[in-house]
């Protein structure tokens, strides 16, 4: 429910132009204008922003992707207002602007590089940056006569301070060129892009290297290389360039070498070289290797890391019992807050090593993902005592396993004693399926009536427990697992 202050703010931003407003109301007015999709009000607010900083995420909260996005116009309105401010400061250096904005923080704003569902804020900001830089150069070439002959110090004094924009870069072949051009302006332009995160998709290794070399090394915290279909040679072309980012905390490398049916001696050597390069990243705390084939080689990936990981995602990595045993005995285990082992066949020799690993991680673990792990009732019952030792656990993902209603109810009752547990994603119970025959083919399909009954029973158990903060759902997409890591 909206606060009275927000309700009043929504009435105010419905007006255009906005009335003169006290500075302390600007944050709530910005929130109201953004949530209500009022780009003209946002332009007025940014044009007179009375503070040196504007943080999107603090003002409007967590933003999701929308297929029908009323907020694209709002984001573009903020960018447009900032461009108007900077152009005026270039053209009228003596003008006393009411806008005090020096830092625009757009980290966490949804982005879509191919613009199929949402606007590309990366592309929009890069375009604005390039156009402002060109305008600055053109204006300086045709500066009025009274400014000609100014000393270097006087010229610098005429240079407006500009705006630093913190942003999560989302780059593909459509936005690569304009972003590269924008980054070449660096500190000389009035609009300076500083990437906190770098997400690339469908780009060559050489293009990624070129882009990384253009980024400000002091800002980058996260790198995500997605759907690039690399092997180890391409990865080893990129990794040495990451060591120039001293604050890099999170690295996501998906599907490396996934198309090789068997590890060759060359790929095994590549894994060891990758481990050595990862060891050069002194601030690394999160590593995601989803879909990267690593059977028997996890030790080579992790052994050169200088400090302990807090998040390790190893979904569909074809790990062997020896890999989990190594991890349970490694110094990373007691520090893990997030662990994802989805896609592994736990009953095939991984159950005991997993128990050992969870015991070692129990004091720190917040997030555990075991989706599609071939878990049956007996395996979950064996793991339950270990789950209960994870006293800080907040998220448990069990979707895609063959579990009965009875064992899920037991899990619910037992895990009520975990005070911080907030979200459990469970599979539709196996007894909620019925056998259907289609000609000569038979298969299992969901019995909607049984699913409805089971869902109601679980909801009733939760209601009876008084744990209104605890969510159980069989829809893995209905709730986003929280991000526990602040970069």
From TrEMBL:
<dbReference type="InterPro" id="IPR050694">
    <property type="entry name" value="LRRC14/PRAME"/>
</dbReference>
<keyword id="KW-0677">Repeat</keyword>
<dbReference type="GO" id="GO:0005737">
    <property type="term" value="C:cytoplasm"/>
</dbReference>
<protein>
    <submittedName>
        <fullName>LRC14 protein</fullName>
    </submittedName>
</protein>
<keyword id="KW-0963">Cytoplasm</keyword>
<keyword id="KW-0433">Leucine-rich repeat</keyword>
<dbReference type="InterPro" id="IPR032675">
    <property type="entry name" value="LRR_dom_sf"/>
</dbReference>
